Structure formats: structure tokens, C-alpha cells
Protein 1
Amino acid sequence: MTGDTSVPFTPIEVDLVDGRRVRLREIRQDDLNEVRQAFDRLSAESRYMRFMSPMKQLSPRMLEDTVHLQQERDLALVAESDAPAGIDIVAGARCYVQADGETCEFAVTVADEWRRVGLASRLMRALIEAAARARGLKHMEDYVLSVNQGMLDLALRLGFAARMDPHDATVMIVRLPL
């Protein structure tokens, strides 16, 4: 991978189309409980779309991996909203740099009640800039279930090209040249 891999993401405040406001920032190790709670608030369908299999809970290992990143290889952003007990994580996006050092695979998850307000696209734009272009990557890609029309539509709006996975007709590969 070329470029400075330790470029920090500067937190930003984002106004959403419905008037709500969130902060986008890098995930922290102390977010573990908030990440668990955010996952628990997801519908079964949202969990399936994100993980491509039914999941009732995140394993302790998955939770640890979510908040303990390999800084030189990964970046994870969260969207947090003020809540009565402090903050709630309402969305997250991350990228994982692949072995070739030129491509990263991404993932994005938005809480059901925070969808269709521009949050996923704001997170993805921030991830593309902070994780991919600033780190000198050449491509960003993901594997998306063919039935996940919302994610496919978002990817196309952001300039990704989509093609069917040659090994699995239920999956589309979306790819963005950087």
C-alpha cells in the first residue's frame, strides 16, 4: 500500500435530510458496548444483508475485531447520535485493505430507523476519501447480496460498477476505481 497509512480521520458533524445530526468519527476501543447495542438494535433482515447469513449476535471475537483495528490496514468510521444515556452508534462503515495492498473491501451498516436520510452515502464518501484515496489505494470493492437493492443503488450512485459474482449468482461485486 502506498501513501501514509496512519492519516487520522477528523471527526465531522453531519446534518441529515430529516434534520437529525450525527458525528462521524473513527471507531475507538471503548466503543465495544455501543457496537454490541447497535448490532442488537438491527432487524434480522439488516443483519442478514450485512453479514450474508442469519446472525443473532456478534461473537466476542467479532466484537473485539470491530473495535481493535490494524491501523495500518483498516479503518472503521461510526456515526454517533446524542442519546439520553450518552451516545448511540447508529451506523458504521469500514474498509479492510486486501493482501495486494491496492484494494480494500468495505462494509456499511445503518440502523433501521436511520435509513433513507443520507447517512450511508455520507459514511461511504468519508470512507472513500479517508481510507482509500488518502492511503493511496487503487480500488474499493464489496460483495453485496443481489437482493440488497438499497446497497446496490447506493454503490451505483457513488460511481461503483456492479457485476455478478462468477462463483455465486446470489452475490454482486461492486468496485470503484480510485
Protein 2
Amino acid sequence: AVTVDSRTKPGMAVANEQMTGHAADQTSQAKIVSQQWDYIVVQDNQGNFAGSSGSVPSWCVNANTTLYGQIKANDSCTRIVYFAGWGPAGGTSGSDNTVSCINRIHNNSIVLNNAVADEIVSPIGKAWITSMSQLPGENLYSSDNQHPSMEGVYLTAATILTTIFKTDLTNVNYSGG
């Protein structure tokens, strides 16, 4: 049996100046200590990782280090899966593009993982790049060109599932919903 729980508040990050981030959020903390988890997927604000390749803001690393410590204090065997997602369609500036932005996010997620601990990075953005290349008719973005469409949500979930369970999902029949 698989038990899944989440704390997904719009705009929430691990550290957040506009609202309490996961590292200090009481609901997130209660979920962490509610049981011994095999895996916890940590999705930070992908904008924190879209800057220069090889550079993650120190406040972001500090908040993720705090969250890591909280998760490991509950169960030292819990594996953290860092969400290396996508960036906005077109990238973050006029001279950027989608693929280079996603590659920076992926690389900086690895930088964070190496700075905090040797855990797992789920290559969600890399899966998006592959999908955009191999299936250009599928739009992974919603109308705001930042958030995922249903296809983007499915690909993201499939990538996380594959990361954790090491299973091939190519023959899964899914019709949306």
C-alpha cells in the first residue's frame, strides 16, 4: 500500500518571504512527523533555481538544510526527492529560452542536493525537454505559460513515480481527469 499526503499551498516554497515556508509551516511540520515516511518530495519555488547555473541563493540552501534536518529527525531513513522542475515557457528573460532555463533549474537542483545532502533529484524538467522535443504537439504549459497543463501535471507525476519506484510507465493507459 502506498500512503500519499501533501502540503500544497499556492505560492508556497521551502523558505518564503510572502508567507510561511515549509521549513517553518506548522501544517508541513505536522505532516512530516505524522508517520515514518519512505520518501518526501520537496518542491521549492523553481524560480529560486532559474538563476545562474551553479548558484542557489544561500537563504534557499539554508531553508532546505533546515527542512532536511526536520525530515531526518523524524526518520533518518526517509529519502528526500528534490523536485527539479520546469521554468516559464520562453525562459526568464528576453535572451533566455525554455530549454536553457529548465537545464539551469535541473543543474541548480543538483547543486542544492550536493550542498544539503546526497539524496535524490527527480529530473522532471529533463522529462519536459524530452517531451517537448519528441511530442511537440503536446502543450505541457497552462495558459499562463508558467504552470503545468493536465499533460504537464501527468508527466510530472509520472516522472516522480518513476524516480521513486523505478518502474516503466510507457504502457500505462491514462485518459485524463
Protein 3
Amino acid sequence: AAAEAAAVLKRGGVVICPTDTVYGFLADASNKKAVDNIYKLKKRPKSNPLSVFVSDMKMARELAEINEKQLKMLKKYWPGKYTFILPRRKFAGVGHPGIYGLDKKTIGLRIPKHVFLRKLLKEVGKPLVQTSVNISTQDALNSPGQIIATFEKSKLIGLIIDGGDIKN
């Protein structure tokens, strides 16, 4: 399933799958159209930023300025269910990956613990924007049945991975 999900993400599609906490919408953080599709699916204002899954500390440090004190704390809680808001790394010149949120001063990052997500991040090799599966301001949908009932008609979703009900 990770290879299939990675293929959808690499094509600019949106994937729904379980995370450490809830079901999440995932998209390639370097694909503006894919990121925009998550905002459309959620009916979420663009002023409300999305957080980003990264595969490891190296990828985190490519996106955020992380000092030694922060690094110590991150290593304590990652991989896991915590997202940390960190100062955004400043990119100089051209050639940097056009990662979502480049214009922001901060970025929310997480290294997930979820085995499937870790495999998927490795397979894709890029940061993935992520957010809970729901319409903005409504409760997160934690069962495949609810997700399918709400989003089955959407052409913006490339793949839904059924991980059973998630109890938080």
C-alpha cells in the first residue's frame, strides 16, 4: 500500500490514511496544486497553515532552524504524535525545493511514529503536508465509513487507505 500511496503523491494526488492521532489528508509539500486541493477538500482558509510530516531529523533541519536546545527536546518526543512550530529556514537563491509555506516565518513539523507513514515518507523522499480529515471547524472523521460517506464523490482524492476506526 505504501508504494501505491507514494505513486499517487508523486503524481500530485491527495491520499487519506491513518496517522498517529487521526486520519489525515496527505500531499507532496512541494506540489502547490496538491496542497491547494487539501484546502479545497477541507474548505479551510489559506491563512490557516498546514503542518508537515518529515521522515527524519535531517529533513526537519532542511526546513527549520533547530538549535541544540530544541534538538534535545525534539529527540525526546520524535518520532511521535507531537507537532512542533519551529523557525522556518531561510532559503538563499534558486534551486531550493519549493516547499509549502516558504513565505511563512515558522513551520509546524512532525516525525510520525506510525509505521505506514514512516515507510511512505521514505518511499516519497519529500516532506508531506498533512491535516486531519474533516471539513474545517468540524470534528475529525475517524472511521473509513464516515470518510467515504463525506468524500467519496470528490475527484480530488487519489487514494483512501482503510486502517480501521481510530479511537483517540
